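> @MW can you paste both from yesterday?
MW: sure, first one:
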Amino acid sequence: MNTSYAGTRRVLAGSPFNTPQVDVGPGEAFAIDDRVTHDRFGLGKVVNVEGQAAVHADFGHGIVRRITLPSSKLTKL
């Protein structure tokens, strides 16, 4: 008795898992001295940019955080 299925499963039209794949374009471009906001750390200022990979932002009181890009929590103001 073989219970495994080798074929693909049929997806129902009303299924919540049947969502189209959205192509995410390039993220925001950050530069030094840009003002940013982060969902967890609050308001800050960009102090260093690592190309399209990450930014270093100062969120006050000497707290500098490295945030990898793209980040849904980081927004340029």
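MW: second:
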Amino acid sequence: MLVQMDVQANIDGQIESDLHVRPLGDDERPWLEEHLARSWGSCEIVNRGHVHDAARLPALVCLAREHVLGVATFHIRDGQCELVTLNVLRKHRGVGSALLAAIAVEATRQGCHRVWLVATNDNLNALRFYQRRNMRLVAVHRGAVDDARSVKSSIPVVGDYGIPMHDELELELSLR
């Protein structure tokens, strides 16, 4: 059973008090599929050589006054919680921080020793966001994005800020 929480504070103290994080309901899965397809090009997320169907993963939504402001999908295996997707619909309100904090709570509750994720080398905004929330860069997987294109051809060659996309950067938040 996933936790439901009212978010009061987070890692960096920047969450607005009216945010609420809860598990995605089964009846909301069609919305998630549509949202992931718009945001990521499909529901398939490829990283570290693995293909996730993110629409079928456990998910948390962040709301304010019953309006969805963000969603995160994750996968728990072998004492680790992989944050597969994190999408914020309204920036600079603490939505991403609230979702990350809730993922950490759920991962801890399920006995995980870390939360980890993969970002592409061009995603400077994600690197800044996650590092400011105590996540550490633990690995660079050279050429992993190039390899992922053989599975998901829609992955762009050039990403944010005109930076060629080649590598996956692995970040983690230790829960110990």
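> thanks! Strands lie at 5-6, 19-23, 44-47, 50-53, 59-64, 67-77, 80-88, 114-120, 136-141, 168-174.
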